[in-house]
Amino acid sequence: MAANTDDLLRLWEDNQRAHPVQRALQALALAAPVAGGQAWAQAPIGARDRALLRLHEEMFGGELHTTAHCPGCGERLESDFRVGDIVAGSNDGPASALRLQDQDFDVEYRLPTSEDLLQLAAERADAGDEAMRLLRRCVRSALRGGVAVDPGALPEAVIDRIADGMATQDPDADVQVGLACPACGAAWSLRFDIVSHFWSELDDWAQRMLADVHQLASAYGWSERDILALSATRRQAYLEMVAA
Ligand SMILES: [Zn+2]
Fold first, then answer.
1. Cα–Cα–Cα angle for 191, 193, 196, nearest 5°?
2. pLDDT higher than threshold 90 for residue 133
3. Where on the tree of life does the source sit, at the highest rank (predicted)?
């Protein structure tokens, strides 16, 4: 990974108020600048999330942790899993062109990207149903019997098949983790959101880093820049001496 401690702290600092999708894109821009030759904003959501999972693995390890309440009995349970357990896809290239031919309908569409999500988020709250607005962005052409139709006028069954096609082509856009309750035996699956998970880990890491700087600066009078330039091993060794 190209990013150093100072870069990561700046990422954390500069994106405090940013949209979660923007935070993810900024983190990837720092650590893994391009996806198959293009910006991450134009990569399919699942490809972006796989890259974020890899970055998580590099920075914080491959163990992921989630807590949930059982829908059966309300028991709070914690579950650990690994990045490799939840990743299904492998295509990191550009959002490819997809096509659905169903009876007399012929629809060309592409996978949703981070850019789409940011655009939707920037639109007015009364702009209409979000799923429909996303569909409009992703449908390149919709024909019925060779005649162009509005994507909003497609029958529900066709729209469902487009959604299925997107899910099949970009399986990691919606990562589900299987959970089972040891207390009552209920089993269910939970959406795992690497975008918010990554940011909360980065936030914890940044807070720890600043606390370390505070301790070493207080003890030795070193500057923040000097402390951040230390390797993690040396920083830890000095922290232990300060605590001894
Ligand atoms: Zn339960």
1. 145
2. yes
3. Bacteria
**193 CA distance to ligand 1 centroid (A)?**
22
* CA–centroid distance, residue 178 to ligand 1 (Å): 14
SS3 76: strand
Q: What is the SS3 assignment for 75?
A: coil
Q: Give the C-alpha distances (Å, rounded to integers) separating 148 from 105, 114, 134, 140, 144.
A: 10, 27, 19, 11, 6
Could you tell me the distance, in angstroms and rounded to a whole number, from the CA of residue 49 to the centre of ligand 1? 30
Give tens-digit pLDDT for 192-231: 999 999 999 999 999 999 999 999 999 999 999 999 999 9
- pLDDT of 1 higher than 60: no
Span 49-92, pLDDT tens digits:
999 998 999 888 888 888 889 999 999 988 888 888 887 776 66
- Contact between residue 142 and residue 148 where contact means Cβ atoms under 8 Å apart: yes
Q: Is the distance from CB of 66 to CB of 82 less than 8 angstroms?
A: no
- Containing 180, the helix (H) or strand (E) segment is strand 176-180
Compute, in angstroms, the gap from residue 76 CA to the centroid of ligand 1: 8
Ligand 1: distance of its center to the CA of 180 in Å? 8
Paired tokens of 32: 């893994």
